[in-house]
Specification:
This protein has 196 residues and is α/β, with parallel strands linked by helices. Helix content is 43%, strand content 17%. Helix 1 links the parallel strand 1 and strand 2. Helix 5 packs antiparallel against helix 6 and helix 7 runs parallel beside helix 8.
Length: 196
């Protein structure tokens, strides 16, 4: 399930590996600590996959306000931190304030990959969300708290559509105990799909 490759494979080769059961790929640039983190994460996911479906559906909390600057991002981030520090629950923060999201700044995460990058790679991967693609775009803030950042440039927000966000949330609910969504102050198609 873990493959050590000399370099990151091309998309067609990656798809071929995935068809053979590979769920994560490490390169020579990865350090042993990263290997252990990925191995432990894979084992946890496989263990969770063996549980009944009802036990694996996480709770979704959406933080919304029709006015900016009221503290919804502050509440979302601190709720995520509190959950991850007071329980064994796996929690992910998803920054859906697509044009001006700043969860990354609140957590001092410096995420390189964002939700826009994730959805672009999924689009190039025949529309499939795989563990490898998700893990390479989600930033681990702490062992129990992960982050999927907003796009770094506002113009990239246009590539994030409501139907794909709805699909992403369904997948994240199966991987995490809590999915915390920080939305923009505008009732866009994406925000309305999150409410649904």
């Amino acid at each position: 399930l873990l493959l050590l490759a000399p370099k990151k494979p091309e998309p067609d080769k990656l798809l071929q590996y995935m068809n053979f059961g590979v769920r994560d790929i490490l390169t020579n640039d990865d350090n042993p600590e990263l290997f252990m983190q990925k191995a432990v994460g894979l084992i946890k996911r496989r263990t969770a996959a063996g549980q009944p479906e009802t036990a694996r559906i996480g709770k979704v909390c959406c933080f919304f306000s029709s006015k900016g600057g009221v503290g919804k991002t502050f509440l979302a981030v601190n709720t995520g931190r509190w959950i991850s520090q007071t329980s064994d629950a796996r929690t992910i923060l998803v920054d859906l304030d697509l044009q001006f999201g700043d969860m990354d700044l609140y957590l001092d995460a410096n995420s390189v990959q964002t939700i826009a990058d994730l959805l672009e790679e999924v689009k190039n991967n025949s529309g499939r969300f795989t563990d490898f693609v998700l893990d390479s775009h989600i930033h681990q803030v702490s062992p129990g708290l992960h982050l999927l950042s907003a796009p770094l440039a506002p113009e990239k927000s246009e590539s994030v559509t409501a139907d794909v966000v709805a699909q992403l949330i369904k997948i994240l609910k199966k991987r995490y105990d809590y999915v915390l969504l920080d939305t923009s102050a505008v009732l866009s198609d994406v925000t309305l799909s999150v409410f649904d």
